[in-house]
């Protein structure tokens, strides 16, 4: 994987091959950050990266100047790797080994951006629980944004605070904001820029 922008643009990072992860592809990551770039100035953003895996998303935020960043994953190998890279690149990332749901239940901090990339195989309820817990516990800043990466088989549009959804290849990104209303137009936009009407029900 590579860092696509910021201070360490172009740097390639090679995680151990035995990590139990499905990293966000470079193409999807680039498209995602192009969207975020229209909403945020990255410098100084407080970020929470859930199911952080290799740290791919955390490193991208850190390269662009976001800090502090908290990366949460349940696998010791993933957390160890994130700590190693953070030390090498002097990233302000705190990597924490924890069950994501327990972390959220006990979290007393709020963030500008919360990104979650759960295993695609989790059931619908597990995905919904992440969003519900974040907003019930008020973990997102007033002008912040939460992003869930998921497959086309997971539906997020019906949840409160859903704002919009974008797709790239087999990956879908659902965006949530505190100020979203039920009157927002719900459509899926391909990250190539083409809006498509989809009834995935």
From TrEMBL:
One of its GO terms (biological process) is rRNA methylation. This is N6-adenine-specific methylase. One of its GO terms (molecular function) is methyltransferase activity. Residues 1-14 have a biased composition (Basic residues). It comes from Flavobacterium aquidurense. Keywords: Methyltransferase, Transferase. The keyword Transferase applies. It holds the Pfam family Cons_hypoth95. Residues 1-21 are annotated as: Disordered. Coiled coil: none annotated. The keyword Methyltransferase applies.
């Amino acid at each position: 994987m590579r860092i696509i922008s910021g201070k360490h643009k172009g740097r390639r990072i090679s995680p151990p091959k035995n990590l139990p992860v499905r990293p966000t592809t470079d193409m999807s990551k680039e498209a995602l950050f192009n969207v975020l770039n229209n909403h945020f100035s990255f410098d100084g953003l407080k970020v929470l990266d859930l199911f952080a895996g290799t740290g791919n998303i955390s490193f991208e935020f850190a390269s662009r100047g976001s800090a502090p960043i908290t990366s949460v994953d349940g696998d010791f190998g993933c957390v160890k790797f994130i700590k190693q890279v953070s030390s090498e690149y002097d990233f302000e990332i705190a990597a924490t080994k924890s069950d994501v749901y327990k972390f959220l239940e006990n979290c007393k901090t709020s963030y500008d951006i919360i990104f979650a990339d759960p295993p695609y195989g989790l059931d619908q309820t597990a995905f919904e629980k992440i969003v519900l817990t974040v907003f019930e516990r008020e973990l997102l800043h007033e002008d912040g944004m939460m992003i869930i990466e998921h497959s086309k088989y997971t539906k997020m549009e019906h949840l409160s605070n859903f704002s919009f959804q974008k797709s790239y290849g087999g990956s879908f990104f659902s965006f949530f904001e505190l100020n979203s209303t039920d009157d927002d137009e719900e459509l899926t936009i391909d990250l190539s820029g083409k809006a498509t009407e989809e009834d995935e029900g």
